[in-house]
Amino acid sequence: MPVSTYYYRPVDKTAKQRADQELVKEIERVILEFPGYGYRRVTEHLRREGKRVNHKRVLRLMKENGLIKRRKRRYVKTTNSKHSYRVYPNLIKDLVVKETNQVWVSDITYIRLLYDFVYLAAILDRYSRKAIGYALSRHIDSRLTLEALHMALTERNPPTGCIHHSDRGVQYACADYVDRLKKHGLLISMSRKGNPYDNAEIESFFKTLKYEEVYLTEYRTLEEAQISLESFIKEVYNKKRLHSSLGYVPPEEFEILYNEGRDSSQNILTQSVQY
Predict the structure, then answer these.
(1) Which of 206, 131, 195, 132 shows the shortest CA–CA distance to 166?
(2) What is the DSSP secondary structure assignment for residue 199, as one 8-state letter?
(3) 8 in a domain, yes or no?
(4) Is 185 a member of any domain?
(5) What is the DSSP letter of 249?
(6) pLDDT of residue 72
(7) 30 with 163, same domain?
(8) C-beta atoms surrounding 272 within 10 Å
(9) Which of the four pLDDT bands, split at 50, 70 and 90, describes residue 114?
(10) Is there a domain that residue 73 lies in?
(11) Residues 141 and 12 in one domain
């Protein structure tokens, strides 16, 4: 008798099918809570819950059960750079960001209501991807961006030298906005002309926000949109949603881990100096 025959164990197809069916239910549960998740984030989410799964199996089951969505990309211009204000140089090109409050990125997008649309201004910490300031308005003006900036300044109290990066739009180049940045010691940086990809992190944030919240909800009024968007940003995006660029942890958890690591390094350095 061949050795391979001795060690062979027949596959229990029924048990395998049951296991796949149970995993599909778990995948559907995750996608119901995070509709924009692809197979990699679903896998990492399940692993964080203690389940032993791999990307290939999750991808196979999502394909077989029609759980992978094909997305159409579109770009809507919200920038008016035809103004007489000063345009500042790009300070973050090729810059390696190593800590929180080193670079903030900001931008504006539109949010469609049932019979109308409004504008959302947002600011992210580029290191942790955490949304630290945001505001919603029917008007795309400096009051919108200033409100988002006020939230970010209150939330973070940034150190002098923190870079604020934006596009060249009038809402960011106007005197009121620039004066507020300078008053709080922020350095001003702006994207190259006609290049939205200079601000890729916040473009990614807006894409996530729309596919996982806006496109799944029908807002009748600005107030309804305000409540839903604030809940998604604070409770889902910042606290729960896994980010591949952060090693599949949410922004707030990433910042906690960063601060714990920094404190540990400082303690080690202090002890070595004492000795």
Answers:
(1) 195
(2) G
(3) yes
(4) yes
(5) B
(6) 47
(7) no
(8) 8
(9) confident
(10) no
(11) no
Query: For residue 88, is it within any domain?
Result: no
Using alpha carbons, select from 123, 99, 108, 53 the residue that is nearest to residue 77.
Answer: 108
**Exposure b/e, 157-179, CB count within 10 A at least 16 = b:** ebeeebbbbbbbbbbbbbeebbe
Q: Range of 44's domain?
A: 3-64
Token pair of 127, please?
A: 């290191």
* Token duo for residue 122: 């947002």
Q: Are residues 159 and 31 in the same domain?
A: no
Two structure tokens written together for 62 = 């999502």
Domain count, the chain: 2
Q: How far, in Å, CA of 225 to CA of 246, rounded?
A: 28
At residue 12 the predicted structure's pLDDT band, cuts being 50, 70 and 90, is low
Q: What is the pLDDT of residue 83?
A: 63
Number of neighbouring beta carbons within 10 Å of residue 136: 19
Question: Cα(168)–Cα(191) distance, rounded to whole angstroms?
Answer: 7
Same domain, 130 and 211: yes
Is the CB of residue 168 less than 8 Å from the CB of residue 87? yes
Tell me the CB-side half-sphere exposure of residue 253, using CA atoms within 13 A: 14
Closest Cα to residue 107, out of 119, 92, 118, 95? 119
